[in-house]
Amino acid sequence: MFIGRERELNALDNIYQSNKFEFAVIYGRRRVGKTALINQFISDKKAIYFMGLESNTKQNLENFSKSIMEFANGIETESSFLSFQAALEYVFQLAEKERIILAIDEYPYVARASKSLASTLQLLIDKYKDTSKLMLILCGSSMSYMEDHVLAYKAPLYGRRTAQIKLLPFDFEETCAYFKNLSDEDKALIYGIAGGTPQYLLQMSDKLSIEDNIKNTYLNPMSFLYEEPVNLLNQEVREPAIYTAIITAIATGSSRMSEISSKVGENTNVCTNYIKNLINLGIVQKETPYGEKSSRKSIYYIEDNMFRFWYRFVPDNNSIIARGAADLVYKRIEPQLSDYMGKVFEEICKQYLWKQLISGNCPVEFKSLGRWWGNAPREKSQAEIDIMGEQDKNTAIFAECKWTNEKVDIGVLETLIKRSELFNYKTKHYYLFSKSGFTKGCIDRANEMGNVSLVEYKEMTEGKEIVLYEGVNR
Fold it and tell me: Which domains does the chain have, with CATH numbers?
């Protein structure tokens, strides 16, 4: 079953319809669904698909030759081209007569083994781009290789591509499409523990409870997800032990560079380089208070929910999990789930606000969203705002997100208003997001103010129009 990726499929189809030479680059993290996207796109088209192997030039050339010959002759053959240049030139010439797609998956494996492949492609693209109807797709999971050796200014193929797609994990709304049978709350929990990476979502079942899903995956030594973070780091980086220590430190509460380096036992310069690589992999995110550029205030958090859940709960309980005591470990995890979901719910609310903006339903046309923290001089304490976004120097949005079983009371709204007074915007709009709804006092105050939006979580998942409390207009 193929779900989502409409925008990416439309982009690929648009360049396919041009009927002239096109060169698309598709890249993204492992397990994010690049191969599935390509297979879906080429399923009803004339295409040569070749998956590169982490092997030598000879084996990759033999496999590439088989893919070409099977397409051209309709049968498998043992004959092989003498070189990648000969094989590729043959494909370019075939495509002079008709529209053909050539998709080379895991291109970095092939290019690392055959150092001249990029230059060969450059030569042939320049030679045939005006006469061939080939649609070339290069796909890769090594983010650094694709960015440095395919997309970068100094790369041989720079300037030849006509499109590029950086495939990202699904957002919350797309993730929900996988789990029709789950309750609204459980959909958020699944997103919180597995993230939006398709391969991880496939490990979950909407026929099981959240408890059973966690037990069957993270707490099961024989499951795919049990060792996935370690396996992925082993594939992507050198010295995975230090990366593991850094991710563990962040996942368990160390957010500032000084705290991370102290926990890991390495100096900040060393940690900075490792964290930069984790950011490039989409595992860690750097955050500064909204509207500020000071790196001194920067903090780090785990961007990928699967990594965040795994490193928060699995390593500390590894010995018990290995002994098959999943029930015992889950009893330890369950009381912490609500607190864990706080950050996840903030991200869900951000995604919701972006969708409201794009659909024209947001009262503030913000340019970006982020979290803010800093000093509150009057209270002589630290203050935080879950989400804020600026339209211009006069207008901004402020939001608070509560993933609790209690209804949000008027005190939460008053605190948000007080914290917004740290900023000098003339026009302010407030959002309160709540898992469980709002008290009458909070609703009455929102009505009275006229610039407050109260959004209950179930309205977000059901796709209902946002509930705006603006005076008598409800």
Answer: 6-166 (3.40.50.300), 173-340 (1.10.10.10), 363-469 (3.40.1350.10)
Residue 23's alpha-carbon distances to 72, 101, 324, in angstroms, are: 21, 10, 50
Closest CA to 107 of 197, 168, 26: 26
Nearest to 22 by CA among 41, 35, 40, 2: 41
Distances (CA, A) of 182 to 109, 116, 175, 408: 39, 51, 12, 25
pTM of the model: 0.90
Taking the C-alpha atoms of residue 84 and residue 157, their distance in angstroms, rounded to an integer, is 16
Asked if pLDDT for residue 162 goes beyond 50, the answer is yes
Count of beta carbons in the 10 Å neighbourhood of residue 380: 7
Q: Please, what is the Cα angle at 200 between 195 and 202, to 5 degrees?
A: 120
User: Which of 442, 472, 471, 441 is closest to 454 using CA atoms?
Assistant: 442
285 with 300: CB under 8 angstroms?
yes
Mean pLDDT score, 454-462: 88
Strand bridging mode 452-456 / 427-434: parallel
pLDDT tens digits along 43-72: 999 999 999 999 999 999 999 999 999 998
Q: How far apart are CA 110 and CA 67, in angstroms?
A: 15
Q: What is the pLDDT of residue 387?
A: 98
246 within 8 A of 271, measured Cβ to Cβ: yes
| pLDDT tens-place string over residues 195-217 | 999 999 999 999 999 999 999 99
What is the CA 182 to chain-centroid distance, rounded? 22
* 8 Å CB contact between 87 and 65: yes
Residue 135: what are its φ and ψ, rounded to 5°? -110, 110
pLDDT per position as a tens digit, 364-416: 999 999 999 998 877 778 899 999 999 999 999 999 999 999 999 999 999 99
